Amino acid sequence: MGLVSSLKNLNLNLSDLEEILAEHSIASVTDEQGTIVYANKKFCEISKYPQEELLGQNHRILKSDEHNSDFFTDIWEKITSGNIWVGEIKNRAKDGTFYWVKTTIIPVKDSQGRIKYFVAIRTDVTKEKQMYEKLLQVEQELIQQNLSLAAKVATKSSDIVKNERLATIGTMASRIAHDLKNPLTILHTYADMLTPEILSKLDSKDKEKWFRLQNSIFDMHRIVDDVLDFARTSELNKKKTSFMRILRLSLNNVRSTYGIVIKLPENDITLNCDPRKIEGVMSNLINNAVHALDGQGEIEITLSFDSNNIIILVKDSGPGIPDENMEKIFEPMFTTKNTGTGLGLVICKSIIEQHGGTISVDNNPTTFTIKLPA
């Protein structure tokens, strides 16, 4: 009955201790070696061990692996030095569940000042820990949401500024392009009319110059058309139209394809679309492919469909698009050409999206994929 004698020396007996602690605290007493010699009712309830299984055991029976060996070494060194230790410990109950306890370990000394027992008083803080961890999780989620929201706001703000700037540029460019449209049309028409007569009188060097002049006029005409198309948005005028008819009309707007083979689809399909706008899309994609091939290569246009989409592929045998440009290819004003506005593919994307479809690009070989609702 050494424990009872020790408690009496502290003017407490076992029944007094039980009465004081039983209703609130989880209490245990170990001897100087750390062996459990007393565990109250609350201790047994939270650990789910009956008292007879706890007595004679070390507190390692409750080890949860939450804390490393240094943690327990520090506790042991402190209390065996006669100091009180206060902290939180995660324990494992007999059924494998975990619980947290706020713990105070008090060394109890005999009359000679030697440690005889360690009294541990604990409070269950499992719910508080769970709440704290939940709050930490919510805090992290809120931080991430705030960062995401800030990024979206920044993107939206950037887009608004960009759109306002583009709208201003578009308005100014539209006025200039409109004024250039008529004289360019006259130049383009007369150049086509004069070509047979002039070619018969020119040597090979002068013919090359004439073709370069024609191509320059054609490029200027295209730039003006791109600017006007970008500056104005009009409602779709949808009607059922043969895709091959649209494609053949678009080829009339393609610059010289000498040395380039263009393979057309062998099949046809009826599109419910604005034929003029889809014609513009195809002209733009084919002209881009012609430019990429630089006078030699192959362009293949294929037509297929699945249960949901009509799929149009425009593939060329050119050198491909540099990887660093792939994500910018549909951005306004982005171009790798010496001539051009960088608006062509932006207009194509806008037109396809107006039709409820998508347009994307892949490399090796360069392939533009259009998907339109079937």
UniProtKB/TrEMBL annotation:
SMART domains: HATPase_c, HisKA, PAC. It holds the Pfam family HisKA. Residues 29-58 form the PAS domain. GO terms for molecular function: ATP binding; phosphorelay sensor kinase activity. The lineage of its organism: Archaea, Nitrososphaerota, Nitrososphaeria, Nitrosopumilales, Nitrosopumilaceae. It comes from Nitrosopumilus adriaticus. Residues 85-137 form the PAC domain. This is PAS domain S-box. Keywords: ATP-binding, Kinase, Nucleotide-binding, Phosphoprotein, Transferase, Two-component regulatory system. It comes from the Archaea.
